[in-house]
Structure formats: structure tokens, C-alpha cells
Amino acid sequence: MLARLREKLWLRIQSESVYTDEALTELAQTVASSELRDMDLPPFSVRFSRRQNKRWGSCTVDGNSGTIRISAHLIGHPRWVIAQVLLHEMVHLRVGGHGAQFQALMRRSPDHERGQGYLEALETVERVGPQVAALFPFGEDDVQPELFAAADRAIDRAS
Ligand SMILES: [Zn+2]
């Protein structure tokens, strides 16, 4: 059962996601030659980082070359989502901060808005989900309104 699930998930990841540094680099080249084709990007390398837990990606520029790291948490998520995180970091190769110029470049992608929504939701699921599960260890069909009511009262007292 678990082996079958694992096999199905693996097939999905292979067909819909990006899971190697080579494939990630290829995807970055695709982004460079579409949304950023008129930008004179410096040489840069791209790889997955397993230590990157708080952010989806990072970009460091050293002299005239850049290093982009993408959180390994994104492995298994759709290619177009990973492409959005790549686009964000690749824009940072030339533009610091998230001002008007940065936003205009991001909006070149038709997936920009849904990408932001996807990542916001993912962040909520990854951060809030486990906290809720730890605080309210429900069974499958358990509804425990008294637990929520107790939590509400505790929050009221604290604030
Ligand atoms: Zn940024």
C-alpha cells in the first residue's frame, strides 16, 4: 500500500515537477529566454537547497556572477510554481528589493498572480497546519468544538 502510494507520487513528481539541479537549471534557462530575454543577466548557477526552510529561494551576487538556491521543499510542486520562484530570484540578479521595477518584471509572467496565491497557501499549510495538528490532535471524524472554544478563551485572556 505504502509502496504503491510512493510509486504514484514518484511518477507524479517526475512528470509534473522538477527534482534535480540539472532540470532546475534547464527551467531557469527557459525563464531566462522567455520572461527575461531582454535582460542582460550575469552568469549564474542554480541548485536546490535542503537547508532553506524559511524562504522559497535566495539569490546572492558575487562580483559578476550569481548563485540561486531554491528550497528543496518545492520538490513535488508543479514546474510552473518553481518557475515563479526562479523568476523572482533571477530578477534579483539585476534588481534589488521588491519595488516597482521588480514588480513590473514579475508581472511579465502570466502565472505571476496564481503563483503568489499558491505560495501563500503553501506557506500557511506548512506553518499553520502542523501547529493546528499538534494543538488539536483530532481523529478523522472528530469534531471538538469545546477545544476550539477553550483556545478562543485562552487567546482572549492573552490579548
Ligand atoms: Zn525577493
List keywords for this structure.
binds zinc ion, globular, single chain, 159 residues, mainly alpha, Zincin-like
Contiguous helical run count: 6
What gross morphology would you assign?
globular
CATH topology label of the domain at 19-128: Zincin-like
Helix-strand topology string: HHEEEHHHH
Class computed from helices, strands and strand pairing: mainly alpha
Strand coverage percent: 5-15%
Task: Describe the protein's architecture and organization.
- The chain is mainly α and 159 residues long.
- The protein has a domain at 19-128: 2-Layer Sandwich (Zincin-like), CATH 3.30.2010.10.
- Helix content is 54%, strand content 12%.
- It is built from 6 helices and 3 strands, in the order ααβββαααα.
- It has helices spanning 2-16, 21-33, 79-91, 100-106, 112-135, 145-158, and strands at 44-49, 57-62, 65-71.
- A 3-stranded mixed β-sheet has the order 1-3-2.
- Strand 2 (57-62) and strand 3 form a beta hairpin.
- Helix 2 (21-33) crosses helix 3 (79-91) and helix 3 packs across helix 5.
- The chain starts with a helix and ends with a helix.
- It binds zinc ion.
- Zinc ion binds next to loops.
